[in-house]
Each structure stands twice: as C-alpha cells, then as structure tokens.
C-alpha cells in the first residue's frame, strides 16, 4: 500500500493531506514513512485556503461567547509562551516536555488552518498536541527536520479526529454542510458545473441540493433520498468538502498577531503587509475569533428538517 501511495504522489508531483486521509487509514509508522518520503523527495504540499469571502454570515448569536473568551485567553497565553520560547537558546532534545513547549506553535498553527464547520477549535488543539507528542516519541524514525516531522503528525491527528467525528453526523447535517460549501464556491464565481467537477459529485445531485435548501417551505417529495445520497457523497469526500471556519485573511491576521510564524508583528506591521487599514486589523481579528467560536445551529436546522433523519 505504501509503495502505491508514494508512487501516486510522485506522479502527481504534489500532495494534499486531506485527500490522503480521505482514502487511507495509516498507522503512525506507515505515516512516518510517507513523511520521510515527502521530505527526501522534496514534494510540495497543496493546501486549499478559502479566499477572503466567508462561506456563511457569522452572527454573534451563532457564536459561543464563553468559548470565544476562552479561545482568546488561550491564544494570549500562547503568545506569551512563544515570547518566552524565543529567549530560550538551547533545550534538551531528549526531554519530551521541552520539545512540546518549543513546538507548541505548530499545534496552534495547524489547528487554525484545519478548523472546520461543526468542529471545536480547542478540540483540534488537543488532538494536534497528541499528534506532536506521538511524533516526538517517534523522532528516531525521522529522516526530515523536526518541524516538518511534527507539523505533519499534528495534521494527521487533526484529520483522523475529524474523520472519526464526522461518522456520527446525521445525514441532514452533512447535506447542509455540503450545501454551505457549494454556496461558498458559487460566491467565489464558480458555476455548479465547475463545482461538480471539482468535488467529483454528479451535477444533478448538486442541483437537487440547491433546491432542497433554498425551498425549505416547499420540500421536494424526494427530499429524503436527496439527503441520503448527498450524505453518502459527503462522507466519501468528507475532509475536503467540509468548509473551513477561517478564510486566508483570518488565518494570516491570527498567525501574525500571536507569533505563530516565528515572529511577532505589531498592528502597524500587519496592516502594511496585508494592505489593510490599521484601524481594521483589530476588528478583523475579533471577527476571526468569533468565527472560531461559531457553532452550526443544529437545533434550528433539525427543527426544519426533523423528518429527514
């Protein structure tokens, strides 16, 4: 299996972790071999970031305010932690706790980039931390630099967690999430035909999905079969079809503000680099934090679609 995976990646001349974990269940040892292959072959990673459009309007009422406050306090602590880490010139590379502390920024950075609709950011942080710890325990198998190795183990545990949790999502929830993904792509200027090819989902089901959720007061007679079919397709392409909570601009502002790129930026510097008015940076940062605490309004959705489950 590993030879086949590596050959496919080599032929594609790039790789995408979401696609890899959509199709395969890999042990840490198997995954470590793939990470070494990616590093030694110098194969570039392809990540899909949302452009600066939002997939859904984020209302304060859909955000857990207490969770937002917890996230902000946590990220403030991480910022202070990272500042202290910059002052530590040497650590004991055999001490697991010191290694985890040094590379905690990897945990936060990857959690921000992979947090998706329906998932808690803080849960992803926990899973990514476990990934880094397990990656440290297997460092003897690494042929790459330590940051590349640990970054990929953090991603592995995030994606495996998402894949596991999504198995428990109801059909209507998965269908609705896919609908939001389609809306995002439509807002980005793609046609349904282009989205169909991109997602590898038949056009007639995307059309049915649009009809299903834009006519909630007049449900088609075959609503149940539409939801079940789309649910099946969403589970198949589960990791890449779930929209991310943050767009590219959100990610950059948070990473720069909290020092997740090995440098701390002042608001004025962020403004200049991103070409955004300085007065808007904190507003956008607050909006990004609200998105992290955003919860899919499952109660309202289930009330509208209770007979579909």
From TrEMBL:
Residues 99-160 form the RNA polymerase sigma-70 region domain. GO terms for biological process: DNA-templated transcription initiation. Keywords: DNA-binding, Sigma factor, Transcription, Transcription regulation. InterPro entries: RNA_pol_sigma-70_dom (IPR014284), RNA_pol_sigma70 (IPR000943), RNA_pol_sigma70_r2 (IPR007627), RNA_pol_sigma_r2 (IPR013325), RNA_pol_sigma_r3/r4-like (IPR013324), Sigma-70_Factor (IPR050813). One of its GO terms (molecular function) is DNA binding. Belongs to the sigma-70 factor family. This is RNA polymerase, sigma 32 subunit, RpoH. It comes from Sebaldella termitidis (strain ATCC 33386 / NCTC 11300).
């Amino acid at each position: 299996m590993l030879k086949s995976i590596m050959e496919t990646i080599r032929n594609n001349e790039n790789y995408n972790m979401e696609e890899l974990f959509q199709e395969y269940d890999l042990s840490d040892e198997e995954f470590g071999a793939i990470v070494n292959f990616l590093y030694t072959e110098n194969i570039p990673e392809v990540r899909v970031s949302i452009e600066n459009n939002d997939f859904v309007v984020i209302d304060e009422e859909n955000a857990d305010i207490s969770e937002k406050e917890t996230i902000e306090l946590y990220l403030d602590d991480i910022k202070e932690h990272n500042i202290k880490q910059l002052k530590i010139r040497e650590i004991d590379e055999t001490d697991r706790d010191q290694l985890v502390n040094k590379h905690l920024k990897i945990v936060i950075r990857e959690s921000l980039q992979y947090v998706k609709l329906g998932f808690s950011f803080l849960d992803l942080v926990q899973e990514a931390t476990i990934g880094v710890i397990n990656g440290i325990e297997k460092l003897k198998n690494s042929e790459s630099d330590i940051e590349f190795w640990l970054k990929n183990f953090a991603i592995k545990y995030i994606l495996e967690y998402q894949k596991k949790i999504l198995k428990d999502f109801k059909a209507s929830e998965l269908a609705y999430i896919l609908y939001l993904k389609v809306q995002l792509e439509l807002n980005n200027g793609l046609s349904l035909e282009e989205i169909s090819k991109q997602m590898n989902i038949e056009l007639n089901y995307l059309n049915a999905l649009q009809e299903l959720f834009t006519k909630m007061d007049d449900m088609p007679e075959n609503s149940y079969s539409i939801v079940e079919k789309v649910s099946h397709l969403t589970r198949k392409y589960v990791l890449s079809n779930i929209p991310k909570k943050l767009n590219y601009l959100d990610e950059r502002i948070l990473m720069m503000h909290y020092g997740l790129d090995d440098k701390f930026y002042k608001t004025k510097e962020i403004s200049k680099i991103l070409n955004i008015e300085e007065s808007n940076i904190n507003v956008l940062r607050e909006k990004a934090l609200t998105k992290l605490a955003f919860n899919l309004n499952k109660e309202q959705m289930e009330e509208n679609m209770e007979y579909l489950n």
